[in-house]
Amino acid sequence: MDMVLASGNQKKLRELADILQPLGIRLLPQSEFGVPEADETGLTFVENAIIKARNAAMHTGLPAISDDSGLEVDALKGAPGIYSARFAGPDASDADNNAELVRQLRASVSQADSTDTFSARYQCVIVFMRHAEDPVPIICQGSWEGAIHLTPQGHGGFGYDPHFFAHGAGCSAAEMSATEKHRLSHRGKALADFMAVARQRLPVR
Predict the structure, then answer these.
(1) From CA 194, how far away is CA 126, in angstroms rounded?
(2) Which of 49, 105, 120, 198 is the most buried if burial means most Cβ atoms within 10 Å?
(3) For residue 9, what pLDDT band results from cuts at 50, 70 and 90?
(4) pLDDT (tens digit, 9 = 90+) per residue, 137-180?
């Protein structure tokens, strides 16, 4: 089954394709079809994931899957949240966003408080649409609890992974193997739910 991923992010493509491989799904990035980026005008992960999936399906004529995910930090009142990918600006790199995260967290700490660890979680919403007008998209969600450390560790993963330490993991998400991250992460949990539903509702393995 061919399915378009509503993203041109190659790291995200590899991660999703690896997890979905057992279903016999061939995941294609929307960039292969020249799909323009959707305007993420929603106020929630769910709204933005639907917008992106519908945009990809409309421009390609293929079933589409989207992932809207981000980091919520309690000390920043849930920021960066839905703005995680553009926390430091519209064209921000991962390094830019991580630097902005550390800057804001340092600014949030009083002089009397020397903490460098902040409670946080990753959130992920997966949306699958059979076509652009699909009235009943599949929507799955996963969370990953942990903490942000101001000092990064590891060079794997992407996004805020070098600063994110999952509860009980003993290392950052950037130091985990792909297999371990798929098993524990917000995206892995959301995709596990999607795979269970897909086996019941879609022509997959």
Answers:
(1) 8
(2) 49
(3) confident
(4) 999 999 999 999 999 999 998 999 999 999 989 999 999 998 99
Measured distance CA(108)–CA(111) in Å, rounded: 10
Q: Check 18, 39, 67, 68 and give the catalytic one.
A: 68
The rounded distance, in Å, linking the Cα atoms of 61 and 46 is 22
- Report the CATH fold assignment for 2-201: Maf protein (3.90.950)
Q: Catalytic site residue 68? A: yes
Q: Are the CB atoms for 39 and 62 separated by under 8 Å?
A: no
CA distances from 41 to 21, 48, 83, 93, 123 (A): 31, 7, 11, 21, 18
Q: What is the pLDDT at residue 111?
A: 62
Closest C-alpha among 100, 119, 205 to residue 164: 119
Q: How far apart are CA 89 and CA 79, in angstroms?
A: 14
Question: What is the torsion angle, in degrees rounded to the nearest 10, for the CA atoms of residue 193, residue 196, residue 197 and residue 199?
Answer: 150
Q: Is residue 73 within 8 Å of 100, Cβ to Cβ?
A: no
Tokens 């992920």 appear where? 124
Residue 95 has pLDDT above 70, yes or no: yes
- pLDDT confidence bin for 115, thresholds 50/70/90: confident
